[in-house]
Description:
Structural class: alpha+beta
Largest sheet: 5 strands, antiparallel
Order of helices and strands: HEEEHEEH
Distance between the termini: 29 Å
Strand order of the largest sheet: 1-2-3-5-4
Radius of gyration: 14 Å
Amino acid sequence: MSSFALNARLEGDSYFVSDLTLCTVRLLKDANYPWLMLIPRQSDLVEIIDLEEADQMQLMREIALASRVLREVTDCEKLNVGALGNQVSQLHVHVIARYRDDPAWPGPVWGAVPAQEYSHDRVETLIEKLRDTLAGDDD
């Protein structure tokens, strides 16, 4: 069994937020949409079904936690959750805060508009709020 290694593209496209029991939580570098990724810290995972059953249930709990936290922190109107993996096969789950006035609404966020950079202050504030809320809401 090899040790967990985060895909370089996932790492480069996101900021570290926190580690949960199973997953590392990262914020995508796109200020158009508050967007979390949950990546299970296990090797050689492509699909959710590649996880042991207990870890599948833990992933679902962590998706629900991340969803609650993102909704609380952003006051979003809708949450999109998905595990596509067509470009990066390492298992990762997207949890995206959506608003009726966001650049991609009502369609999917992928490729709708170029990524918008966060300002240093804005991303630091958002990550701090996410960490604090995750810590306060952790099961």
